[in-house]
Design goal:
Chain lengths: 347, 288
């Protein structure tokens, strides 16, 4: 990288937004009487230390999965707000497959993953069809469809599929062996590898294929790309299907790793969908950027817990920090001094 | 009987917060600002109303503070989208997220509880004829907004700014001023909606207690074609769905079915109305 690119990156809205978030977060910490340095140190050591790294990588699996799910349509400037519904449907479908498929365990795992992806994809495609053929904006159709899906999964986990005798709203545990292999005795599973492969596939498609070019072109200028022959409705349907499939995959991975069952609320409560959306927005949907920002937010989420333990500052602060980053980014603020620079170049 | 006056009463109670927020959304839509931050503004209103009512002992100060706080919060959208020309959709999403985080954070630092703050001595709004005064205010607001938008010079200028900002600017009408006015009004209305939700419909604060009502308000704006009376009818549909849901729950249907009812009804209503006029609605949810 040449120096101009580096100074450009430093002055970019992304750097500005992240720094602004960190500074405002520090003000919040001072306001609650905590020492910002200690608190941020606790975030980093809590998330990246020996005790926390496993948890961070497990969280990364979900956040990156949802980040990719939301980044892929966002690349064409489509916003899928129904990630929760698609993820939960993927999870409950994987749980049902895991419980009832009469196949050997390894095949059941594969089938459960595929079934979860298909369920998420089909549900997301429904939102795309609403926009394409019924004129309901995708933003609204995907979000409104999400609530009934979450309710349905919650109903299934509380009534027909409920574990007999348990006081918790959860299904029975899937049979032994029907689980994603974990690395050592950590909670990190092959799911992380699957999500990483998805990221690699997205990078390749985005950089090296015709459809990736069409997607980026649509994102930059939808009218121009329509004029150039990109079929918008088909593209919306494809992008939403892929997005839903990834969200379903995240749900299925959640069920096929600890606690090996579908627990009502366990997929939606950590807010993976919204963290994923934040990560995708921060990276402006670029593949490598989404990976980096997803990891960054996973660190914040896990480190937030450690911060709460050491400084007694509520971990909700990390959520505030995330949102502030996006507020600044959306307002397109950047470091001053750009104009000065340009004038120098002109001379 | 299933359809009786009780059902209508509970529908009207469920209607008020959505109507107030949707009116704000409609005013923004007319001024050419796509406001999807209603949910977050409403949530800020809920928290401010409960906190102020708790510390001052007056529900009315709570209402006032909620309106002011949500109005101030809406400045994020005004500055970001109008002055800095940022993306209104992304700003709205971020504002909703920020409100959830901020209210959750404040709930724990100010009240020291997690999840729900609920106290018998928390002062709620008084009931006048079965409704809170804010309910009557919301009906009055529909009438005022309808007259202002269609008959008053402010309304004409506001619509002009929304439809043709350049032409409005040429005629000496400042688009920036009118857009700021519309966004601040929506913020104040959302604050009142939040106060109604947290001090009227119930008397407590729960994390994320708006539970999608701001989004329903966004849909009500579309369904009602951003006209105050249309928005009232659309919001009434949602109120009826919510009230009917509660009634069905009493008849033994699981809670999940009734939770989902308003969204399914709203979506169904959207299908029915937009199928006929889909060319007139913005073609995508993506930002412009």
């Amino acid at each position: 990288m040449n120096p101009a690119r580096i100074t450009g990156a430093l002055r970019s809205p992304v750097t500005f937004s992240v720094l602004a978030g960190v500074v405002i977060g520090a003000l919040f910490l001072v306001g609650t009487g905590a020492d910002p340095i200690t608190a941020y140190e606790a975030v980093l050591t809590g998330a990246l230390g020996a005790d926390g790294i496993g948890s961070t990588l497990t969280t990364t699996t979900s956040v990156l999965g949802m980040g990719l799910a939301l980044a892929i349509p966002l690349r064409a400037r489509l916003i899928n707000l129904g990630g929760d519904g698609q993820m939960v449907l993927g999870g409950i479908t994987a749980a049902v497959t895991g419980l009832y498929a009469p196949l050997p365990a390894p095949l059941t795992v594969v089938l459960a993953l595929v079934a979860g992806m298909v369920a998420g994809a089909a549900y997301a495609a429904l939102a795309a069809l609403c926009e394409n053929h019924l004129g309901v904006p995708l933003l609204v159709s995907s979000l409104l469809l999400s609530y009934p899906a979450v309710s349905l999964a919650s109903y299934l986990a509380r009534y027909p599929l409920k574990e007999p005798g348990s006081s918790l709203p959860q299904t029975r545990a899937i049979p032994d062996g029907v689980a994603l292999p974990a690395f050592g005795d950590s909670t990190v599973t092959v799911g992380l590898v699957l999500v990483a492969l998805a990221a690699a596939a997205y990078w390749f498609t985005d950089r090296r294929t015709a459809i990736g070019y069409e997607i980026r072109m649509t994102g930059l200028n939808a009218r121009f790309s329509a004029y150039a022959g990109v079929e918008r409705r088909g593209l919306t349907l494809k992008l939403m299907s892929v997005s839903g499939a990834l969200a379903g995959l995240v749900g299925a991975i959640g069920v096929l790793s600890f606690p090996y069952r579908f627990v009502d609320g366990s997929l939606t409560a950590p807010g993976y969908t919204w963290t994923g959306l934040t990560a995708a927005l921060l990276a402006m949907a670029a593949p490598v950027g989404t990976v980096i920002s997803s990891f960054f937010f996973a660190v914040l989420q896990v480190g937030g817990l450690a911060m709460e333990r050491t400084t007694e500052v509520p971990r909700e602060l990390t959520q505030v920090l995330q949102a502030i980053v996006i507020v600044f980014l959306a307002a397109r603020l950047r470091f001053p001094g750009r104009r000065l620079n340009r004038r120098k170049e002109a001379v | 009987m299933f359809l009786d006056s009780d059902l209508l009463l509970s529908a009207l109670r469920a209607l008020t917060p959505i109507l107030l927020a949707a009116l704000g959304g409609a005013i923004c839509e007319r001024a050419g600002v796509f406001n999807i931050g209603l949910e977050g503004m409403m949530l800020m209103g809920c928290f401010t109303a409960v906190a102020t009512s708790w510390f001052t002992g007056s529900a009315w100060l709570g209402v006032l503070a909620a309106a002011l706080a949500a109005g101030a919060y809406s400045l994020i959208l005004a500055v970001g989208a109008v002055t800095l020309r940022g993306d209104a959709v992304v700003l709205g999403v971020a504002m909703n997220l920020l409100a959830v985080g901020l209210t959750g954070f404040l709930l724990r630092t100010v009240f020291g509880v997690q999840g729900t703050f609920d106290d018998p001595s928390l002062a709620g709004l008084p009931l006048v004829g079965g409704f809170t005064p804010l309910t009557y205010l919301s009906w009055a607001a529909v009438a005022v907004a309808a007259v202002l938008l269609s008959r008053h010079v402010w309304g004409l200028r506001l619509r002009g700014v929304g439809e043709a900002p350049d032409a409005a600017a040429t005629l000496g009408v400042s688009p920036v001023k009118y857009k700021y006015g519309a966004i601040l009004t929506s913020g104040v209305l959302c604050g009142l909606a939040g106060a109604q939700l947290a001090l009227g419909n119930v008397t407590l604060f729960t994390e994320n207690m708006t539970a999608g009502r701001g989004w329903i308000a966004v849909v009500a704006v579309m369904l009602g074609r951003a006209a105050p009376v249309g928005v009232l009818l659309a919001a009434l549909l949602f109120g009826l769905a919510e009230a009917a849901g509660f009634r069905l729950q009493g008849l033994g249907l699981p809670q999940q079915a009734t939770d989902a009812a308003p969204y399914v009804v709203t979506l169904g209503a959207l299908f029915l109305t937009t199928a006929r006029r889909r060319r007139r609605i913005r073609p995508s949810g993506a930002a412009s």
